[in-house]
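Tutorial sheet, problem 5. The two components below are modelled jointly, 679 residues in total.
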Amino acid sequence: MKIRILWMYHDLMDLYGDKGNIQVLKTRCEKRGIECEIKTVSLGERADCQEYDLFFLGGGADLEQTIIYEDLLKRKDSILEAKASGTAFLLICGGYQLFGQYYLDQDGKKIDGLGIYDYYTESTDRDHRCIGNIAVEAELDGRRFKAVGFENHGGQTKNVGSPFAKVLKGHGNTYKGMYEGYADAQVIGTYMHGPLLPKNPMIADIVIARALKRHYGEVTLEPLDDTLENRAREVMLKRLGVQ
Amino acid sequence: MRTPLIVVKLVRKLLSMAGRGGSLPGQLGLMMDKDFIRRFHMPKQVILVTGTNGKTTTSNLIAESLRRCGLTVLNNHRGDNLNVGIASLLASGSDLSYNIKADAAVIEVDELTLYRQFEALHPTGLVVNNFFRDQLDRAGEMETIIRKIIEVTENFEGDLYLNGDDPNVLRIADHAKKARIHLYSVARMDESTVTTNEASEGKFCPRCGRELKYSYYQYSHIGRFSCPYDHFGEIEPDILVEDIDYQRRTFKADGKVYHSYINAIYAVYNCAAVLCVMKNLGLDTAGADDVFAHYRLKEGRNEVFELKQPCVIDLIKNPTGANEVMKEILARDGKKNICIFLNDNDQDGHDISWIWDAHFERLDDPQVERIICSGTRAYDMALRLKYEGLEDRVTVIEDSTQAIHALNEMNMQSFVMCTYTALHATRAILKKEAQQ
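Model answer (structure tokens):
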């Protein structure tokens, strides 16, 4: 088996160790004998999104987001085609925001999003920036689990139809909010850095299974030894008082 | 308004009699008088030093070099670089009428709070070293830090000493129209590279937003860059370092040979900043060379402890710093063990995701035998290494005393990397372990 990952703006949208997510996906595929091809695409470079099984977009600071958004908007048709063809999406922070209607930054500048979802994001003042360790409970593809991460965003994302998870500790989409991220059967959008996947291998495996689905249907992934992963997550869950 | 100063001086005296220092006196001063820092009559030369990495060393080197020229210098040599530390420093160096009794003040200032202290300190010069990603959860994004520094220097009429090889530092020059700009740079050398996997900053021209072209990198995003469209980065440095000789630990600048305190490119940049200041002030640099050659790094920076086999401890606090420390470790011959203390307390930054931006894959070296992970986020560190295929060599020992003891028992040269809040405690443990 093989998955092809499209890693968008790897050189610009790579805040807070988001590249670690790619490393985790690759390693977890390879350990199971699944070939994992990673294609990086940046500003002005051609990519047919529908050729890929997974579309990954990480977070960036305001500056980077301003630099890439026009380039991203030009790819809207290609992204919609990919979505229609069954490509899975993993979007972190800025990447998540840009799939919504718009992002209003701190200086009051409005950046148009792809408008694929109804949610929109507006920046807040410094005192309401959502920073810190976060624990959530998610139910995804028939599995219910707790996950941890680190959030650091000024943007408040509102009007989210189907959130990714319930916040157990931390903020989520809005300051002291109840819900975190956006998710449906194909897309996971989240504010959770950390990076997201190393300590939450169940999410990594859901993403891999979703990416495989396009060509191979429902696949049961061989379990891996996640002792360290689980331990690292439990340390944080315990500290946050939700374990 | 003498009362606050008298109280601060008194508290300082009492504390120092009790063998303690710290920021309490400054804190009191600022509590009693929010303009406490502003009240001081500063000396003729006030040089502030800021940036992400190397502030303490650079400011100490400048202070010492000035002293060698016969000047009396007030300097926060321990790196107490927040307002409270600076308030304490000023109180310690002044008479009861707020007159600083020195020819010069060389003050390291935290890059996040510089904009709040800048005017109050009446600087005549500002040195800006570099901007790397550092503790972003505390700092907010790097761009914000740079913008704030640009704001406060826009009307600055003094001397700006800038690292011309860091685009994020050089862009300050574009806005500081009233300042005299002095640049330092390090010329291409054998170790320079044409490509890099370390750079995460400084990719775009701050003038036009288009991609910068690098002809070479020295480390991280530091190197010779320029914008093909508007010529940003085409500089004429006041100090250009050439001919770095790592064998002899020397480098050349302005036709003279200087010695470096450590074989590392970032150290050469720190020295270059010092020479840039000295040159502008028209001071002799013979003393500076001696200062460079004999400078002793702060405790916990490349410090050796005599365990059964030598053990070198270093601070790591951001990807660039960690990358440079790993380069130094791997440059040492022979098999070695490594111990990493990863904490996430306030001063470390709560977000430890930076370990995924650092190149820990470098530890996948045949001469690295065992890696012990410790600290409050020991498992995160172990996990990071697991994803570099190092799992078989990794052990987690959460308790720091046990971790160091285990390291010593393995009886091999070793290297300890610590985040900020682990440094002090780990040094104490190493001291104890060395005595056994």
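Marking note: Residues 59 and 94 of chain A are 4 Å apart (CA to CA). Full credit if you identified this.
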